[in-house]
Design goal:
Length: 120
């Protein structure tokens, strides 16, 4: 039924199986697996798969992503789940319940935006 999930990461395809996601969920019942895609000319993340606590807020997760992207202060980033922008006070658990894929994986898209007038 859920053979394989294929996501684009630059030129390479990454496949994450339903079996892999369920293994993570069993091993870490209080955490959620998230795959992060980076778009809009932002630097790439070395690691795109995260296992985060359910109680973590979107704002805290955005901070983690921002730290790993090493952006300049004038660059703003936004995080989308299923092409929707959520409040930074929502927890990962709330987002996961609404937007998880059939495989059990949550996919986040991080997009950059010039917030203070400097051309990116």
């Amino acid at each position: 039924m859920f053979s394989c999930l294929k996501l684009k990461k630059s030129e390479n395809e990454i496949s994450i199986t339903y079996k892999d996601v369920m293994k993570v969920l069993r091993k870490y019942p209080d955490k959620i697996p998230i795959y992060v895609q980076v778009v809009n000319n932002l630097p790439t993340l070395k690691e795109t798969k995260f296992i985060v606590p359910k109680h973590l807020t979107i704002g805290e997760f955005l901070f983690i992503c921002r730290k790993r992207l090493t952006l300049s202060p004038e660059q703003g980033i936004f995080i989308f789940f299923n092409n929707k922008l959520y409040s930074t006070s929502k927890t990962i658990q709330e987002i996961y319940d609404e937007n998880k894929l059939d495989s059990g994986l949550l996919v986040a898209t991080v997009s950059g935006e010039n917030t203070f007038g400097k051309f990116i």
